[in-house]
Write a structure and sequence with these properties.
The complex is a heterodimer. Chain A is an alpha/beta fold. In chain A, 35% of the residues lie in helices and 28% in strands. In chain A, helix 3 packs across helix 4, helix 3 crosses helix 5 and helix 4 packs across helix 5. Chain B has 2 domains: 85 residues, no CATH class; 241 residues, no CATH class. Chain B has 16 helices and 2 strands. In chain B, strands 1-2 form a two-stranded antiparallel ribbon. Classes of the chains: A alpha/beta, B mainly alpha. Chains A and B meet through helix 1 and helix 3 of A and helix 5, helix 9, helix 12 and helix 16 of B.
Chain lengths: 245, 345
């Protein structure tokens, strides 16, 4: 098999079952009481049912579907946060999730310290972060503020820093939940360009969006999820033309 | 999976092992030379035990090397690989906890020294002059401080680790990191404090000891201190794993633990000594204490510092046994439940 169409991800027959406890018992006492009453009934519900698809190197895959179709669940399973009830995922390459920016920040630490902390959480190593530190700082446009604790930042500044850290890598597989354009207009433009650069740079991208224009412009292939199953998957135009809310 | 350089890791493992041996033989040299164990001079028994441990360690490393060459999985190898892969994250999380702790205080890290000393002073006055729990315990100030330092270190480690999964929920639901990293780093960062509080403990022993008749002096037995602390660390880790995973499913654990830990604290001879019970003929309590891991850890430290001798061989066994058992129980429970954390966070 040539390098061009190397298999990056194989999602085979993945099902995810959630249990909705009818009145969720959050305490030991309640659980025990319920257990004795035989009241520990649970409604089962499948967020994903037998979902399979393959992703090859360099592809930009769009995942579309209505709210609750299982888009976020499949992303979480792919990035390893959730274990599927059935089926498995084969991953060939490091995955960087860009699910929600800045979730690993600590408000009491300075911007500099947070770059290293958040970078470590995203799985970058020390040498890499030291080498890229100036690049991150330059991209975030924080200048002297970098030595101040994050609690004194404006929300736009925090977002800019988070975006700069998350996109400094060239991951093999990038997972994006909605395109991230943050900050003021100028920075939005810059961050959008950065995203496009990443997606065009040979990285394999899994991309969730409700914006059909974006999907049409960027993806080679689209997977349409509906009620936890793959309704349709194939080339972008083919799926998009049939997709109606 | 990233391959790790086993050669380098091996070197560290052997270095650590040799270091422990040097500490042990240095700390217990008088006993080893003069004492007898199982009918033969202690030094031979110790050498035999050290040799057996060395051989086991060697076999384990060889097993890991085999596994690596053949691409097989071994538990130890996998563990070393994840620690290697995430060592930077561990380092960052520990340094964060440490920085945050004293970030906005004027005295900063000095609180790590001051806190145990102040606690000890208060308790010294209360229990020595007001209540006279002291009994006939010699060097009561040092006796008290040993207990306080070890107990509050343990309590700190466990209660920090307990909240680690819940507290990091926003991260756990978004980024994949092996989940045991969180309780592990919390125990590490709390344990830095335990190590720091050894400084006031040793200083107090030296200064206080000068004014005693006969003079209380630190002996080379103090080299055994790292053993006790290492075992305490492993024990805390096990407790941390156990409670942090239970905490995800039942938030009651937090409230339950605060009650259990205070019962446990009073059941541990921190302010009183077991000789009091001997006088009263309550031998059952002394027997019961044998099942209390914290009693053994505190006793270990006290023997080393106050008596300046090496603890009984059986004490070593108790300390190591409780630590290993607790660690495995905690880790097993954690591993069994970790996949379901995300559904409850």
């Amino acid at each position: 098999m040539s390098e061009e169409n190397r298999l990056m991800l194989r999602i085979s027959d993945v099902s995810m079952k959630f249990r909705m406890e009818e009145d969720r018992s959050a305490s030991l006492k309640e659980t025990i009481v319920n257990l004795f009453r035989g009241k520990l009934k649970m409604k089962e519900f499948f967020a994903l049912k037998h979902v399979s698809f393959d992703v090859y190197k360099g592809e930009v895959i769009g995942i579309i579907g209505r709210n609750g179709a299982g888009k976020s669940t499949i992303l979480k399973i792919i990035s390893g946060i959730m274990k599927p009830t059935e089926g498995n995922v084969v991953r060939n390459g490091n995955i960087v999730p860009m699910l929600e920016l800045g979730s690993g920040f600590d408000m009491d630490l300075s911007g500099r310290e947070n770059i290293f902390l958040n970078g470590a959480i995203l799985g970058y190593d020390k040498e890499f972060l030291h080498a890229k530190y100036d690049e991150i700082l330059a991209f975030s446009e924080l200048n002297d503020f970098i030595e101040m604790p994050l609690r004194n930042y404006s929300s736009g500044m925090i977002m800019r820093l988070a975006f700069s850290i998350a996109t400094v890598v060239e991951p093999e597989i990038l997972i994006v939940d909605e395109i991230l354009a943050v900050g003021d207009e100028k920075f939005q433009q810059k961050s959008y360009e950065r995203m496009m650069e990443l997606m065009g740079g040979g990285t394999t991208v899994l991309f969730v969006s409700h914006d059909m224009n974006q999907i049409r412009r960027m993806c080679n292939r689209v997977v349409w999820l509906d009620g936890g199953t793959v309704r349709l998957s194939g080339p972008t135009e083919e799926v998009c033309s049939q997709y109606k809310l | 999976m990233t391959q790790i350089n086993l050669k380098k890791t091996e070197k560290y493992i052997w270095l650590g092992f040799d270091g422990l041996l040097v500490l042990f033989f240095g700390g217990d040299i008088q006993n080893l030379i003069s004492g007898r164990l199982f009918g033969i001079p202690s030094i031979f028994t110790a050498l035999i035990v050290a040799a057996i441990l060395g051989i086991l360690l060697y076999l384990w490393i060889r097993h890991m090397r085999n596994c690596q060459e053949n691409g097989k999985k071994s538990v130890g190898l996998r563990f070393l690989e994840t620690v290697h892969k995430y060592r930077f994250l561990i380092e960052q999380l520990v340094s964060r906890d440490f920085k945050i702790k004293y970030k906005r205080s004027v005295l900063g890290v000095f609180w790590s020294f001051l806190n145990p000393l102040l606690m000890m002073s208060v308790q010294y006055v209360v229990f020595s002059y007001l209540l006279n729990v002291r009994g006939d315990v010699p060097h009561y100030a040092v006796y008290l401080l040993c207990g306080i330092v070890i107990w509050s270190g343990f309590n700190d480690c466990v209660s920090q680790a307990m909240r680690s999964i819940i507290g990091n929920a926003p991260l756990i639901t978004k980024v994949y990191v092996p989940k045991y990293i969180y309780p592990m780093t919390k125990v590490f960062s709390a344990f830095v404090n335990v190590l720091l509080s050894m400084i006031p403990l040793l200083l107090l022993t030296i200064v206080y000891g000068l004014f005693q008749t006969p003079v209380l002096m630190l002996t080379n037995a103090v080299l055994l201190l790292p053993f006790g602390l290492l075992m305490l660390l492993v024990f805390c880790m096990g407790m941390g794993f156990l409670l942090s995973s239970l905490m995800v499913f039942f938030h009651d654990v937090e409230f339950l633990w605060s009650v259990v830990s205070s019962i446990w604290m009073y059941a541990t001879p921190i302010i009183y000594s077991l000789s009091m019970f001997e006088d009263k003929g309550a031998d059952w309590f002394i027997k019961l204490e044998q099942a209390n891991p914290m009693y053994h850890y505190i006793q270990f430290i006290r023997t080393v510092i106050l008596e300046g001798t090496c603890p009984e061989p059986l004490e070593f066994l108790f300390c190591a046994g409780f630590a290993v058992i607790m660690f495995f129980v905690g880790f097993l429970v954690f591993k069994k439940t970790e996949d379901r954390f995300i559904l409850y966070l």
